[in-house]
Amino acid sequence: MALNIYLSGEIHTDWRKQIIDGCAGGNFVFSSAVTDHDASDGAGDVLGGEESGFWRDHKSAKVNAIRTKTLIEKCDVAIIRFGDKYKQWNAAFDAGYCAALGKPYITLHAEEIVHPLKEVDAAAYAWATTPQQVVDVLNYLVSDL
Fold it and tell me: The CATH number of 3-141 is which of 3.40.50.2300, 3.40.50.450, 3.40.50.150, 3.40.50.300?
């Protein structure tokens, strides 16, 4: 049985690739939100154009939520990455959704942002500071499967 891992959060570094590559050959299936910023921002454009940025964002958020909600509900474990350059409000939302569903999640972020993420980390099953630590935890989880 493969462990289904959902990768959420920051899209400006290669942390997802590091985790997927580090788990190569293991019993994992990985999924993620759309990581192409422009594609994600325009997800609702197929439903018609909007003059207001608010309504464009609103439609795109709802279309993106179909994917995110479905993949989080299907995952066994989520990895929630917070970068240091941008605020990942979507990642915090995903962590809260995981917590509400009882889905275990691991946070991945630098020590410098422990304080603003204290509630998110308090509900996490683990906190990692490097993708390699996440790889090590995931490989441990399937070591006897």
Answer: 3.40.50.450
